[in-house]
Amino acid sequence: MNITIVGVGLIGGSIGIRLKEAQFGNKIIGVEKNEANAKKALHLGLVDEIQSLDDAITSSRIIILTVPVDAIMHLLPSILDKVTNQVVIDMGSTKSNILRLIADHPNRGRYIAAHPMAGTEYSGPEAAISNLYKDKVMVYVEAFKTDEDAFELADSLTEQLEMKTTFMTAEEHDMHTAYVSHISHLTSFALALTVLEKEKSQGRIFELAGSGFESTVRLAKSSPDMWTPIFKQNRGNVLEVLEEHIKQLQNLYTKLDKEDYEGLHKLIKKSNKIKRIIR
Asked: What's the Cα-to-Cα distance from 239 to each of 42, 178, 244, rounded to whole Å?
């Protein structure tokens, strides 16, 4: 059984490393339009060989899409046109538009929408790590529309990644990821822009940047090629979350502006309840 990974960067490359370690599949094939990244993926041992997409579809049992979501929108229909008994797994960060796009495709049953809730702020083949997915959550979206044998094969791959699993509708997935992932990145981008703007006039500002700043702003190092399409595809949910976030920032601003330190204390104390959710 050969496995193809379309897009051999952080997400795809980390899958390749882990599957090779677990000896899951006969051969890991990479499809990568960036020639430099293709050479790096081979050199780093993320994949066994690089093939064209058409050749890879023909020679593989599982095809995993780990390219940006706009590229998934472009590639997925034509890939499904060409499959017979293969399993196509989309690991994009948004789902509603993708699922609507292929809802009536005759090979819909050979496709599964999955989203591994894992990643780092780094990108490219050199960012790939073997334990990226260990103990993280794989979200299956509308899995009931996938053929049983196709789902079982996809789930066996998830087991090799040592992940937990959960099931959601497309609407649930896109809304929840907007709150726990997408807004985190937008906030980090905004903070980075704020500090960079101040740095123009106060050039020594980064001398004081400690671990708190680094942990808050690290996501701003994330790839714009990946995140711009995510915000585009999940625009409605992201705008809703962003509106609430701006409202909360305004609340904090108002308390401080009016020197309402008791009110500010209450808001901060209220925010501490997040300890119920994260450690």
From this structure: 40, 9, 9
